[in-house]
Write a structure and sequence with these properties.
The chain is of the alpha/beta class. Helix content is 30%, strand content 23%. It is built from 4 helices and 7 strands. A 7-stranded parallel beta sheet has the order 1-7-6-5-2-3-4, sandwiched between helices. Helix 3 runs parallel beside helix 4.
Length: 180
């Protein structure tokens, strides 16, 4: 079922990435307390920075243009929606990526940035597990990165979807771990 262990940084080829921990998503009815997810992600990002490892902060500012049954067509976002949460303690050394689809690699410079740093493994946290986190993990795996998914630093709006991703999808894409 994959590696269950700590996601602490211990090698220079790692980088951390959080997904969509931004002001516009703080009111979502998540299945795990968002405060805990943000705190675990912030601690992991700080640990990376302390070791001089790269941190990537990812925000969502739109949706893919395709038609869906849910009707999630692109919409105007309110002011401040894309602001990263202050608890993440964003630093000038952090890379920020703005995505307009579920995954952080599509139509962004993320892969070029990581390749330029010699990164071989990505550690992913964020909201929502079955959307942005899973999509980015799939894309990272397809790009050839080793993927670690930090299960106590992610949540979803649907418990069954979260559980499906963490129990069935993530072990096929990489390794799972926690911040402890």
């Amino acid at each position: 079922m994959g590696h269950r262990g700590s996601a602490s940084p211990n090698a220079t080829q790692h980088r951390g990435s959080d997904h969509d921990l931004q002001a516009g998503l703080t009111d979502l009815p998540t299945v795990h307390p968002l405060g805990d997810i943000v705190a675990n992600t912030a601690a992991l990002a700080d640990a990376f920075r302390t070791k001089g490892l790269p941190v990537v902060l990812v925000g969502v500012a739109g949706t893919a243009p395709g038609r869906t049954e849910r009707g999630d067509a692109a919409r105007d976002l309110p002011d401040g929606f894309t602001d990263l949460l202050p608890a993440l303690n964003q630093q000038s050394s952090d890379k920020t990526v703005t995505k307009y689809t579920w995954g952080a690699f599509h139509n962004t410079d993320l892969a070029d940035h990581l390749d330029g740093l010699g990164v071989t493994q990505v550690i992913i946290t964020g909201v929502a597990t079955s959307f942005g986190v899973e999509s980015t993990a799939r894309q990272a795996h397809e790009h050839g990165y080793h993927v670690t998914l930090v299960t106590d630093a992610m949540t979803d709006i649907n418990l069954a979807a979260h559980d499906n991703s963490t129990r069935h999808v993530f072990p096929a894409l990489g390794e799972t771990g926690t911040t402890t």
